[in-house]
Design brief:
Layout: H1 2-50, E1 58-60, H2 61-69, E2 77-81, E3 93-95, E4 99-100, H3 106-116, E5 122-126, H4 133-144, E6 148-153, H5 155-161, E7 166-168
Parallel strand pairs: 1-6, 2-4, 2-5, 5-6
Antiparallel strand pairs: 3-7
Length: 181
């Protein structure tokens, strides 16, 4: 009996709450559809942009190690670490004798690189990103500057997994990121 009386006296309020919830539900559905459309659009744009990076040849780590072993003064092999400073922490490793190319300062870094490059030199780039995305971007930019550049397939992980020589990242290249304890 109490429930019937409560329903009789509160039926207008319950109807208003029901209409408000229906409106919020419709608004939420529209927002969800818009977010999905934006996600699909952004994903499509990034996928189309990344297609140009697929043209850069990828070379297994073992092949790069073999080329380093037969390197001569006539045929220079350069290995470039293109990880951003943010990927470095104390104790990080890099491929032995690799040089540092900061991807965010590539135009400045490339001018310095050109000073000691020979026309026949090969450049191999590596990073530690998923699908070597930074390496692909940097390699594409270097190809536009007429460099013979290839990506080490699998990046630093593949190199280390193959047991090839590494060395600690020099302290001068480690960016001390702030710690929030």
């Amino acid at each position: 009996m109490v429930w019937l009386a409560a329903g009789y006296f509160l039926n207008r309020w319950i109807a208003q709450v029901e209409r408000a919830l229906a409106a919020v539900g419709h608004l939420f559905a529209i927002l969800l559809v818009l977010l999905a459309a934006v996600y699909i659009g952004v994903f499509t744009v990034f996928t189309l942009r990344a297609r140009r990076y697929r043209l850069v040849e990828r070379v297994p780590a073992g092949e790069v190690a073999r080329r380093l072993a037969i390197m001569s003064h006539d045929h220079l092999v350069i290995i470039a670490d293109v990880r951003s400073h943010g990927y470095y922490d104390p104790g990080m490793r890099r491929i032995k004798n690799s040089i540092r190319l900061e991807p965010n300062r590539l135009t400045h870094e490339f001018a310095a690189l050109r000073e000691f490059m020979q026309p026949e030199c090969e450049i191999f780039v590596y990073c530690s990103c998923a699908r070597e995305s930074t390496s692909a971007r940097v390699a594409h930019m270097l190809q536009q500057q007429d460099c013979k550049v290839k990506i080490i397939d699998g990046g630093l992980r593949a190199w280390m997994k193959g047991g090839f020589p590494t060395e600690p990242v020099p302290a001068s290249e480690v960016e001390h990121l702030p710690r929030f304890d």
